[in-house]
Amino acid sequence: MRFLHGGSLTVRTAIASLALVVVVVAVAVGLLTAVFAARTAAHKEVQAQDLTSATLDVQGLVVDLETGLRGLALTGDMRFLKPWANAKAALPAKLAAFERLADAVPGERGQAQTIASLIDSYIDEYSVPLVRSAREVPAAAATPVATAEGRRRIDEIRSHFVRILAQEQQRADEASATADKDSRRAVAVAIAGLVALAAIVILFGLYVARSIARPVRQVADEAQRLAAGDEVSDLRERGSGEVADLTRAFNTMARQLAARQAELEEQNRQLRDSEHAKSELVSIVSHELRTPLTSMLGFTSLLARGDQDEEAQQRYLEIIAGQGQRLATLLDDFLSVQQLEEGRLDLRSDRFDLAALLRQQTELYSAHSEEHEVLLDLEQRTLSVVGDEGRLAQVIGNLLSNAIKYSPEGGRVTVTGLREGDRAIVRVHDEGIGIPDEEQGRVFTKFFRGDAAARGIAGSGLGLAFARAVVEAHGGSIGFTSVEGQGTTFAVELPAAGQAQSSVAQNAERSSA
Amino acid sequence: MVCSEDRGRETGRKRGQVGSTPRSNAPTILVCDDEDSLRELIRAVLGDGYAYLEARDGDEALEILASTLPDVVILDLMLPRTSGTEVLAAIRTDPRLAGLQVVVVSAWSHLEREALAAGADRFVPKPFEPDDLIAVVDELVRARAG
Is A327 an 8 Å CB contact of chain B? Predict the structure, then answer.
């Protein structure tokens, strides 16, 4: 049964069917052989019985011959010769039948011929001459010589009869025994065959149930659970060949379905996030627009009354201009991110000193807040990169502005600039509130602000989206590490000069295309 | 913290009375907004008939309230650190500040009902008409005096 543990179901079914056929054929052959043997034996027995019967017929006629002759010899009366004459007349046919039957039995042919010739000779050479002479001289039949001669011949014939009858009896007995034996054998073969067939059918049934029906049932059950939307775990691969294939295919399908579902759910979540972000944006934008608008409208109303001195008027106009500028910058930011994301923003590709940019931005932001200490740590005096200086200044500005905004308790903000191999690296580290784990995956999402709005931290949710778009357009990358309550470090990696040129040029080409 | 009773003189002008200084018994208004220009606007609109205290965030506002009791608080909701909502809640749970008049001024106009429910006496949406703010503050100051 070793071969049943490998190979495909088709092969196994074929093998099992073949085994079934072999057993059926073997049983049939055995049964037929036994039946034929029994039939042959029965035929032999019949043959022996027929030959015995023919022998007895002939023997009876011979007895009649002898009786007739003896009657004639005792009485001299020709009337007593009647049985002899009848027997003599019947003999040729009976003898022929006897000889024909004996012909079919190999051992008896000679014996039969001997008997026939002895009888012929008894009739022709003894009894006919005796009868003829008795017709002339009735006493001739009763001479001792003739009588002895007749007894001798008859005894000889009888001895042959005894022998042939004994032989045929034995043959009939043997044939009968053989027929019995063969019949019993046929019955045994039939029973054995039936048992073997039943065993094979049962074994095959068990095999089918175990290695086909059960795994298929299992797959069907799981498929039903899957259809009902339940979560399914991988099925153990039971059975082999096609059944194992089915289980494997089902597992693959279930896994892919789960993956597809997860993907859809993720897309759904992103869509919801983006929808939420959009509606949040409307609020934020309206707030961000309202604040400068409030200033501008308020001071304009005051100016319209015209009851201020010139100094105040000048001051109000400056505020109005400043707030107008702020609105313009806000709109610019929106547009920049939009264009960057659509690949439509053309970036400059100049060689400039990133270290100088960091010094300038650090200075700008240390003046920004009294409660924050903004430190700059530069490894080298210059840090040459190729790119859009203005946009990168905005990026660093955004990171610094965030570092300050998200450190509401004040504290130290450290900017580090260094070169690592062919990369220029800028890190902006703060000791602020950090980014909650659940928000870390989304900080670069446009308009995503987490719970910053609830904390009253102003912003459009565009700063980091803008930063990432600009840095990536330069062939760089941006990332961060953050521990909630302890602070955040943003790291910007840019190709150092000599390497950045090509990628920015390519990007510019792509953007303008 | 910017406590600028004096700075009111630089830019704020009493309506129609250019250059006058606030009376020593003038009502005190705490202006709490993180936008410098808006604090300045509010002072300019209300003029120098009042004495002003200024806070740039919720913490500063609470700090001032711990030592001083103004007549009116003008409170923005979206403030760094402690938010305006939290400040409002703190005011309404402190027995010492009971009866303090609070005007919430916010760009989040949809928060009006919540602000009033949280204990604000008035809600003024941004952007506001100078006359509206003046009317509201005058009314509250009179109510307090009366």
Answer: no
CB-nearest to B81 from A299, A308, A408 is A408
A298 with B79: Cβ contact below 8 A = no
Q: Give, for all 513 residues of chain A, the pLDDT tens digit.
A: 444 455 677 787 788 888 888 888 888 888 888 888 888 888 888 888 888 898 898 889 888 888 888 888 778 778 888 888 888 888 888 888 888 888 888 778 888 888 888 888 888 888 888 888 887 877 776 777 778 888 888 888 889 889 888 988 888 888 888 888 888 888 888 888 889 888 888 888 888 787 778 888 888 888 888 888 777 777 777 666 777 888 888 888 888 988 998 999 999 998 888 888 778 777 777 777 888 899 999 999 999 988 888 999 999 999 999 999 888 877 887 788 778 777 777 888 999 999 999 999 999 888 877 888 999 999 888 899 999 999 999 999 999 999 998 887 888 999 999 999 899 999 999 999 999 888 888 888 876 777 776 566 767 778 898 899 899 989 999 999 999 989 999 999 999 885 444 444 444 444 443
Using an 8 Å CB-CB cutoff, list chain B residues near A309.
Answer: 13, 18-19
- Which residues, including other chains, have CB under 8 Å from residue A278's CB and lie 6 or more apart? A447
Determine if the peptide bond prior to B127 is cis (ω within 30°). yes
A481-505 pLDDT, tens digit per residue, is 999 989 999 999 999 885 444 444 4
Across the A:B interface, residue pairs with CB atoms under 8 Å apart total 85
**Cβ pair A290:B15 closer than 8 A:** no
What is the C-alpha separation between A27 and A196, in angstroms, rounded? 9
Query: For residue B59, what are its two tokens?
Result: 């913490």
Q: ∠ CA A328-A332-A334 to the nearest 5 degrees?
A: 120
A294/B34 touch (CB, cutoff 8 Å), yes or no: no
Q: Which residues contact A466 (CB under 8 A, 6 or more apart)?
A: A333, A336, A337, A340, A394, A395, A398
Query: Chain A: nearest CA to B108, how far in angstroms?
Result: 7
Best probe of the B interface among A291, A310, A401, A457, by most B CBs < 10 A, is A291
Alpha helices in A306-388 (DSSP H): 310-341, 354-368
CA distances from A192 to A15, A36, A184, A187, B65 (A): 21, 18, 12, 8, 109
**Residue B98 sits at the chain A interface (C-beta within 8 Å):** no
Q: What token pair was written down for A118?
A: 């002895």
Distance, C-alpha A421 to centroid of its chain: 52
Q: Mean pLDDT across chain A, nearest whole number? A: 84
As for the ipTM of the complex, it is 0.81
In angstroms, the CA A137 to CA A130 distance is: 10
Distance CA A41, CA A31 (A): 15
Chain A CB contacts of B83 under 8 Å are 454-456
Q: Which residues of A touch B58 (CB under 8 A)?
A: 456
DSSP string, A128-171: HHHHHHHHH-GGGGG-HHHHHHHHHHHHHHHHHHHHHHHHHHHH
The CA angle A336-A340-A346, to the nearest 5 degrees, is 85
> What domains sit in chain B, N to C, each tagged with a CATH number?
25-145 (3.40.50.2300)
- Looking at the complex, does the CB of residue A6 fall below 8 Å from at least one CB of chain B? no
Burial string for A415-442 (b: 16+ CB within 10 Å, else e) reads bbbebeeebbbbbbbbbbbbbeeebbee
Q: With beta carbons less than 8 A apart as the criterion, state whether B12 and B48 touch.
A: yes
